[in-house]
Amino acid sequence: MTTQPDIEQLLAFDRQHIWHPYSPAVPAQPCHLVESARGVYIQLASGEKLIDGVSSWWAVIHGYNHPHINKAIVDQLHKFSHVMFAGLTHRAAISLTRNLLTLVPANLQHVFYSDSGSVAVEIAMKMALQYWHAMGRPPKCTFATVRSGYHGDTWHAMSVCDPQDGMHTIFNNRLTIQHFADEPHCRFGETWDARDLDSVEALLEQYGAELAAFIIEPIVQGAGGMRFYHPEYLKALAALCSRYEVLLIADEIATGFGRTGRMFACEWAGVQPDIMTVGKGLTGGYVPMAATLASAQVGAVISQNAPGIFIHGPTFMGNPIAAAAANASLELIMDSPIVANVACIEAQLKQGLMPARDNPAVADVRVLGAIGVIEMKEAVDREKLQALFIANGVWARPFGKLVYLMPALIMAPDELEKLIRGVMKGLSAYAP
Ligand SMILES: *Cc1c(COP(=O)(O)O)cnc(C)c1O
């Protein structure tokens, strides 16, 4: 049994020495110490049992401590935990890839594994560069994207994040200049206006000859603002990319595996991207793993032209434990009505969160699939609001003006009700 002084000592050490995401080296407030997690609950050492509203950043789609994923990891551990992936392969990766290919758009035929979403994006961008190099068109070497996007924190992934409001403004003068079109304005579920693409078309017209690829998060712009845009936008974008000979990279790291109410958000628009990235929920959020998928065409062009290989190879590529976890997660997805479940979560989130519109501090409430967003008029005091959520039994992590929920896709109606109630109570008690 950990006593209160023990906990305080651990947290004091953590605060002095462990750097946490998007934090100062020594933050004003210590973190919360997690003792265990099961299903949709996180048990803190301090005694609170919190219902997790964010699935550990979109990732833990089946909940914590799921026996099927746990068993897959343990079974693999007892065979071997890692082997290099150059010249060697293993059943976990083969089985995972077989299952993955049944779920993704059918044109995607080659899977390149890595350890994080940002790296999967870097790999996607390198693939696009190598593709045009192999095609004998090296001038096609820059990238286009839309504003308000988020594609990760590594160097080239940062260069296609929103240039102004993104988290990376400070690095701008050191990043490769890419081309930015206006973000989509027609919202999901509202009337489509083809003029929404004008800025993209102008950009492709002007720079098409030097563009390797257009990268975009399909349907949901996540960390760049939690915006849901019209599927026609993606559809028309894909058509324009193909007209201007620009590869389309769909970044499904946040949206993949059912989150938006389709297995992949590209399905809303019937789009088959040339390259697609997945991560976050790939292993059910149990261990780090991401993947970059390429079309048969991209794979063939890179492989049949000098240098004949794709120049990338992470040390822990295809890690067997991660592959076993991911495979187990995909088995759960395939054996359960996950998309139908997300539709139920969507209906309940809509019903439960919409009343927040009556709160004068709230600017907008929107829901798509298992994503619920309450956008405030002003940026919130995160510490303050988070403390109110915790007091109401909820783990959520607002950023800027956004209070967002992306619960596990298996969250039961009574659990979701508890989550929504906690959030609404926390929010109504909140005064900046
Ligand atoms: C989270 C995210 C990434 C980066 O993934 P990491 O695993 O954090 O490196 C990239 N793209 C999108 C759309 C994401 O949501």
Automatic annotation (TrEMBL):
Cofactor(s) the record lists: pyridoxal 5'-phosphate
Top EC group: transferase
GO molecular function ontology, one term from the record: pyridoxal phosphate binding
Superkingdom: Bacteria
Protein's pathway: Cofactor biosynthesis; biotin biosynthesis; 7,8-diaminononanoate from 8-amino-7-oxononanoate (SAM route): step 1/1
Binding site for substrate: 57, 150, 280, 313, 397
Binding locations of pyridoxal 5'-phosphate: 117-118, 251, 314-315
Feature type site, description Participates in the substrate recognition with KAPA and in a stacking interaction with the adenine ring of SAM: 22
Record function comment: Catalyzes the transfer of the alpha-amino group from S-adenosyl-L-methionine (SAM) to 7-keto-8-aminopelargonic acid (KAPA) to form 7,8-diaminopelargonic acid (DAPA). It is the only aminotransferase known to utilize SAM as an amino donor.
Name used for this protein in its record: Adenosylmethionine-8-amino-7-oxononanoate aminotransferase
Species annotation: Saezia sanguinis
